[in-house]
Amino acid sequence: IDYNHYKNIKSKYENQIDMDVQRTFRSHPLFKEKYGAGQCRLFNILVSYSNYKPEIGYCQGMSSIVAVILMYFSEEEAFMFLEKLIKKNKLESLFDKKLSKLNLLLQVQKMVFEEEIPKINSHFEKESILSTLYSTSWYLTLFTRFKLNLCLRIWDLFIFYDFSILIYLVVAILKYFENEILNFEGEVLIEFVSKIEIFEIDVDRLFGILQKMIDCNKIEKIRILLDLK
Fold this sequence. Notes:
The chain has about 230 residues and is an all-alpha fold.
């Protein structure tokens, strides 16, 4: 892939990308300075990818995903990593203009909810809590909405396994807050669930919940359902 070629083509998404770059990880030293080196690299990669994959173009959650990658790689390396990450996990249909994989993802998530957290699932149905209130944005941003220390631990698992593990991460997060979720109703529950990512989470405790829940057979089943085989 000729990164410089795609970087130097004007993209129709440049205005949207520029706006999103300005609000991405602004507390992180790399992206703190407006139009500084970090923001410029982030802008370049997003423009390049929108030109490289016009059928995807640019999806809002991609800005924070690339920002995390840029914390560890040079500009061109980060672009290559993004391309491989999307290809390996077949995320093209998650980020395309119709978000076409999202419906399948949420169907599989519902099935896992019924098996793993039936009480929370029933409570959500009773209170009309939809996935669009919380997990949709988590998937589209690959959990970069959470605090960075948790996000990086999630990415360790994500890279080791693949996208299938993220469904169980959603389950583990909800199970972590099970007492609060089951005790809240109405607008209080809606507000709590929609802001879960801002609350303090003990990473080791969360991953302990996850570890007790997953096994190779479960992951393999999700891979098949999500067409990751």
